[in-house]
Write a structure and sequence with these properties.
Number of helices of chain A: 0
Shape of chain A: globular
Order of helices and strands of chain A: EEEEEEEEEEE
Distance between the termini of chain A: 41 Å
Structural class of chain B: mainly beta
Largest interface: A-B, 23 and 26 residues
Oligomer: heterodimer
Radius of gyration of chain A: 13 Å
Structural class of chain A: mainly beta
Number of helices of chain B: 0
């Protein structure tokens, strides 16, 4: 079946890099996404990667995809207190319209 | 407005009552989704509309849940005979098309509390 898993919590110091990990089970994933949810707000798409790519960089964000191991990571360089939020990993599957989300990783950034 | 809007932002109801939640997608977006976000459970897919096609209702948890999309725009999610386990944030999203890679734009959600 379809399943997306993430660790629930991550705590880092301001200025350090954060790495949020995600694993998924369905090999027919087409795209993989990272969404950010700040307290009381909706979900904001940060970045996404096509399943035949292995890396995508966008300013402070780096996404790495290991398709063989079905492992996705999001690295945030020079993490700031404003990066504190819940980060959701999600996948889209060929033939399905909806996204399948993980439970989210709560990132806490300490000054 | 430019984004997805949802109303009400908060809804408190008594067990057994019916509720209606509304979503206004971004103009021109053909795909519309409803998700439910329960505490510690991530986002759970409920239902998906794509253009004039029959909706994908595979995520609806019971027959107490239904949704309509009128005129290919506004959508209403109805929960009949609400139960306490229905308490959650209900999120709506819209998308330009159903093709992979297109961003799903999310609304701010409706927080439903069933007493």
């Amino acid at each position: 079946g379809e399943d997306v898993e993430q660790s629930l919590f991550l705590s880092v110091r301001e200025g350090d890099s954060s790495v949020i990990n995600c694993t998924y089970t369905d090999s027919s994933s087409t795209y993989l996404y990272w969404y950010k949810q700040e307290p009381g707000a909706g979900l904001q798409l940060l970045t996404y990667i096509f399943s035949n790519m292995d890396m995508k960089q966008d300013q402070r964000l780096t996404v790495l995809l290991n398709k063989k191991d079905k492992h996705l990571s999001l690295r945030i360089a020079d993490t700031q207190t404003g990066d504190s939020a819940i980060y959701f990993c999600a996948e889209s599957i060929w033939g399905q319209g909806n996204l399948i989300f993980g439970k989210g990783t709560k990132l806490s950034v300490k000054p | 407005g430019a984004g997805v809007s949802q109303s009400p932002s908060n809804k408190v109801t008594e067990k057994g009552k019916d509720v209606e939640l509304r979503c206004d997608p971004i103009s021109g977006h053909t795909a519309l989704y409803w998700y439910r976000q329960s505490l510690g459970q991530g986002l759970e897919f409920l239902i998906y509309f794509q253009g004039n096609s029959a909706p994908d209702k595979s995520g609806l948890p019971s027959d107490r849940f239904s949704a309509e999309r009128t005129g290919g725009s506004v959508s209403t999610l109805t929960i009949q005979r609400t139960q306490q386990e229905d308490s959650a944030v209900y999120l709506c999203a819209s998308r330009v098309s159903s093709g992979g890679g297109d961003e799903q734009f999310f609304g701010p959600g409706t927080r439903l509390t069933v007493l």
